[in-house]
Amino acid sequence: MADTPALELRSVHQVYGFGASATHALDDVHLTVPAGRFVSLIGPSGCGKSTLLRLVAGLEEPDAGVVRVHGVPPQQACAAKMIGLVPQSPALLPWLSVLRNVTLPQKINKGAGRRRERIVADTGPSAAPSVSDMRELLVKAGLGEAVHKLPAQLSGGMRQRAAIVRAFGLRPDVLVMDEPFSALDEFTRESLQDQLLDLWDELRTTVLFVTHSVSEAVRLSDTVVVMAPRPGRIVDTIEIDLPRPRNERLFRERRFHAYEDLVRDRLRRAWHGAAA
Ligand SMILES: Nc1ncnc2c1ncn2[C@@H]1O[C@H](COP(=O)(O)OP(=O)(O)OP(=O)(O)O)[C@@H](O)[C@H]1O
Ligand SMILES: [Mg+2]
Q1: Are 164 and 141 in contact, with CB atoms under 8 Å apart?
Q2: pLDDT tens string 125-171
Q3: How far apart are CA 163 and CA 180, in angstroms?
Q4: Which pLDDT score, from 0 to 100, does residue 117 have?
Q5: Per-residue model confidence as pLDDT tens digits over 72-101
Q6: Are 44 and 228 in contact (CB under 8 A)?
Q7: Using CA positions, which residue lies closest to atom 2 of ligand 1?
Q8: Considering Cα of 23, then 29, then 34, then 38, what sign does the dihedral take?
Q9: Hey, whose CA ends up nearest to atom 16 of ligand 1?
Q10: Is the terminal CB of the chain with fewer CB neighbours within 10 Å at N or C?
Q11: How many other C-beta atoms lie within 10 A of the C-beta of residue 73?
Q12: In angstroms, rounded to a whole number, what is the distance separating the alpha carbons of residues 139 and 145?
């Protein structure tokens, strides 16, 4: 089981609509992600990033091809609560406080732990965090004042942070995040990147992360996957060979910027391909 990749997509196709108006959201996508890797998807709008995430999270079935999460179909991995999803827009329950929103998944998922242990033997520290752990995580995410507020009383960025904390709280084996930081100001964004990296360091969760920010992708990732649209496909896979922890000092280093230039260059080609 140890060699089974955390994520595997083989010859995946996803088409929306029919005939001349069909959209080829994903065309022959192959991707293998070993357990514990941090992988970012980057590419022009409409190249299939969210579609790929939905397939991995078991929200949709591919029209063709195979998707596996730790060797099992995504729906099975979902039932075992192995997958944590932070969607492009946060979905919090409007009638529950922030604290109750983030602690709810552990309360309703008690049976999932056993199913999960059967699929992944070495899940690491998977004990569900307590309410006080979750409160601490909320404080770290800058939501200390907001724990008893309702989602409607929060700003968009605060809601997004609550959704991120909730996903972390499940201690998933695979964390799937769709542009989680895009609505945040630069400093909040950097601080959440720090927290995400700290948590990832501790939990060694496999992360699949969508972003439009080149520097965010380079800073966070072991691997940056560049996608292009029409049809949606993977055009490049870049390994980011930079030491960790990736803190502020790294931002001043030449090799960090060299990777940014490389990803930007590949992205530019994907854009030109898209415009052609
Ligand atoms: N449910 C759907 N029905 C029809 N077309 C869809 C559906 N979902 C996605 N598409 C189309 O599939 C393509 C890929 O969409 P997707 O949302 O995966 O792109 P994306 O890379 O996440 O874009 P963005 O960066 O704007 O979020 C787009 O052309 C989109 O219009
Ligand atoms: Mg998207």
Answers
A1: yes
A2: 455 677 888 898 898 888 999 999 999 999 888 898 899 888 877 78
A3: 9
A4: 63
A5: 999 999 988 899 898 888 789 999 999 999
A6: yes
A7: 16
A8: negative
A9: 48
A10: C
A11: 14
A12: 8
Q: Please state, in angstroms and rounded to a whole number, the distance separating the CA atoms of residues 185 and 120.
A: 37
Segments in 13-96 forming alpha helices (H) = 49-56, 74-79
- Report CA dihedral (108, 111, 113, 116) to the nearest 10 degrees: -110
What spacing in Å lies between the alpha carbon of 105 and ligand 1's midpoint?
28
Task: Determine the pLDDT at residue 270.
Answer: 83
Distance CA 223, CA 34 (A): 11
With beta carbons less than 8 A apart as the criterion, state whether 31 and 8 touch. Answer: yes
Domains and CATH numbers, the chain: 7-275 (3.40.50.300)
50 lines ligand 1 (CB under 6 A): yes
Say yes or no: CB of residue 56 within 6 Å of ligand 1. no
Bridge-based pairing state of the strands 206-210 and 38-42: parallel
pLDDT at position 52 over 50: yes
pTM of the full predicted structure? 0.89
